[in-house]
Amino acid sequence: MSAPVTIRIQDTDFDIAKEIAALTMGRTDIGAVVSFSGICRGNEGSEKIAALTLEHYPGMAEAEIKRHADEAMSRWPLDGLAVIHRFGRIEPGENIVLVVTASQHRQAAFHAAEFLMDYLKTSAPFWKREESADGANWVEAREHDDAAAARWTKS
User: Fold this and answer.
1) Nearest Cα to Cα of residue 32 among 88, 97, 113
2) What pLDDT is attached to residue 155?
3) Which of 30, 74, 122, 149 is the 20 to 30 A CA-CA neighbour of 64?
4) What is the pTM of this model?
5) Which of 85, 83, 80 is nearest to 108 (CA)?
6) What residues have CB less than 8 Å from 143, skipping those under 6 apart?
7) Sheet containing strand 78-86, strands side by side
């Protein structure tokens, strides 16, 4: 049986428990599920954030995420994974992204989830704009995010 891979980019919210259940339903070979959910914060330091707006290039974004999902599947013994990423205007407290990895053992699931999140945070083809009282600004990847992603580079 091939491991299921789900990739969705959507403007609507998602239900984390339902996504995990869909990945694991009827599966007795899975011993570990790791999930990461990213939520819109209401501040960046002392600056209040009114909302984030995420834009993407349809088709290209899904293909790039699929390419990294395929790499995760080849690097670790996974029994399935899901990546769901929202786009559009997202307010504080709302879900932005979900990564779920499933494996027989926890270490593979943890590593694959971290790998995928580091990619999504630094290199996925999304553009993020923060809205605040001072206006709206495009957000660049931060150095610590780039450093986290660099650890997965094969030498």
Assistant:
1) 113
2) 46
3) 30
4) 0.90
5) 80
6) none
7) 5-10, 78-86, 95-103, 32-39
Cβ contact 50:131 at 8 Å: yes
Break the chain into its structural domains and give their ranges: 5-150
Summarised one tens digit per residue, pLDDT across range 8-31 is 999 999 999 999 999 999 999 999
Give backbone dihedrals phi and psi of 101, rounded to 5 degrees, phi first.
Answer: -125, 145
Under a CB-based contact definition with an 8 Å cutoff, are residues 98 and 20 in contact? no
Other CB atoms within 10 A of residue 142 CB = 11
We find that the CATH architecture of domain 5-150 is Alpha-Beta Complex (3.90)
Q: Give CA–CA dist 116/135, Å, rounded.
A: 31
Distance (Å, rounded) from C-alpha 155 to C-alpha 152?
Answer: 9
